[in-house]
């Protein structure tokens, strides 16, 4: 008996079923073009014909009907919510960095030790470029793209599915059948050519240009309207897999080959390398190629090729133990020094700012470089008109590396510290042995007053929403305020007469000022702008003394009993609080109604952070988040996973994402890792 006669329909079935799937995919693509991109790909009649063909097939074979079939939805597309939080099934981790060959050797030693491999054996690596773009997690279910999310804080990203669907190198459907779940990870980048063209269009339209291709790529994916994303030429390079239902190849190299077969772009710069010399040679070669590449890269990534070894090594909270990013040295460029201005800060400190010929370095155009003080100018022997080598330190803050004295123009003048404050004309003083020169004008100096008011209003201080530079300058200029306590005497009437300020913004500002009256003692102390008193010290002082009166009564010796307060800080705090004009301002603030809850007395059980709630986000470099949480809990604090108005502070490590943004939006103090370490140093020492 032949199988054919038993199952008469069978020979046609595979092709019929394939046709059904093809129709689903085609209609989905047409829907996307029509509804999202506003750029129909076929006529309505053709669309209807295809839809009817699909309906026919589904009527004959209801068992084949896909849940995501276009017949199951009324027109339009499967709805996805742009930027909604997406909890990653597996965290998107970062990479540890090697800055030089010594770091590489240390990494290699860690590997051989952990794997018990003989030092003579040379481990094999899959080497690839470190793309300087934006990490994306693509979720495929039964071969179809269902969700795309950004990295976010590594645990939770943002949904960008519709926008990602416009990227041509992201397959909507995998080229080969992969049943169940597959998460593909990679980087979205923008080519230099596309970046230049985009910026030309931006400028022609009077819009702000993007600083570098990475920002342009990120900005393009963050569009509310996918049609805008569709016009931005983005490319996706796959470099790894997250959660997955099928067994994966045994080698990293083969995993990338497999991703290539599924239809993803894989960098053609990858290489299989074995041994130290080959690793260093790959890094050197890639560095030499860097400037000629289409895309920005900022290093080479080396991944242990044996995936069983990868699994044995596992990962820390932050990064896998089996991979490392061997970064490139910061890019340097040449420019010229045009002028040096001195800016006056909140405490009167004069900071030299070098104005240089604009130069593109490390992905941004640099035209101003802040110098520490006049000593740095002397040490680096910088003269006006000098040719300079500049770079972005840690790829962020621009700095002058050195000058080229051999190219110094004959008339290059020396740079001197002004004798008078460039803003108020008061004498500039520089106490013996101190690096910082200051304007002696105190609150007479408009620059110091302006900065003091901006600091007072800032998010981490009194958090007066909307009171930024524009308002402060207007208020000072119109003589409506002189000191911070005057803010609380403002009326909507007085504000409305200011140029370009409407009734609504006047009311909003008054509301914000009124709301800010309810604060906390640490915020208030920080807002006063006492020299040397940052957020952490303000919190320690408040915790130690419990009330403003007790703090005011403390002499320098008593102040030094506070764990993180040394003689310099103690002196500053004491002097500040003893000055009559500061006392008058504080009294003015209190009588205007600024108040804070009474401190809850610390229980004798020495739980210094009792009643406080912290949220940890991003990655820490000196410890895992778990360890940090344990240490916080040991001090009596609560550690929570989400930010709310009740959060005391958010500890934001590297690459912190949405939680950091939320904290900023709610005006909740953000602490970095250094501040966290200071917090531990303060309280853990006290407990011992
Ligand atoms: S692997 C589990 N490979 O670099 C391993 N990451 O500094 C984690 N990146 O957020 C990532 N190029 O977005 C890997 N070839 C590459 C990469 C790469 C760029 C990014 C990635 C990650 C960041 C970590």
Q: How would you portray this structure in words?
A:
This protein is α+β, with helices and mostly antiparallel strands and 688 residues long. The protein is 37% helix and 19% strand. It has 25 helices and 22 strands. The strands form 6 sheets. The chain has a 5-stranded mixed sheet with strand order 2-11-10-3-9. α2 packs antiparallel against α3, α13 packs across α14 and α17 crosses α18 (535-545). It is globular, with a radius of gyration of 31 Å. The protein starts with a helix and ends with a helix. The structure holds 2-(butylsulfanyl)adenosine (IVH). 2-(butylsulfanyl)adenosine (IVH) binds next to β3, β8 and β11. 2-(butylsulfanyl)adenosine binds at residues 93-95, 128, 130-131, 135, 151, 187, 239-240, 301, 320, 323, 325.
Summarize the structure.
It contains 25 helices and 22 strands. It has 688 residues and is of the alpha+beta class. The strands form 6 sheets. The chain has a 5-stranded mixed β-sheet.
Q: Distance N terminus to C terminus? A: 87 Å
Number of helices: 25
Q: In percent, how helical is the residue content?
A: 25-40%
Radius of gyration: 31 Å
Strand order within the widest beta sheet: 2-11-10-3-9
Largest beta-sheet characterization: 5 strands, mixed
Looking at the structure, what is the overall shape? globular
Number of strands: 22
Mean pLDDT metric: 88
pLDDT < 50 runs, ≥5 residues = 1-11
Strand composition percent = 15-25%
List cofactors, ions and other ligands: 2-(butylsulfanyl)adenosine
Class inferred from helices and paired strands? alpha+beta
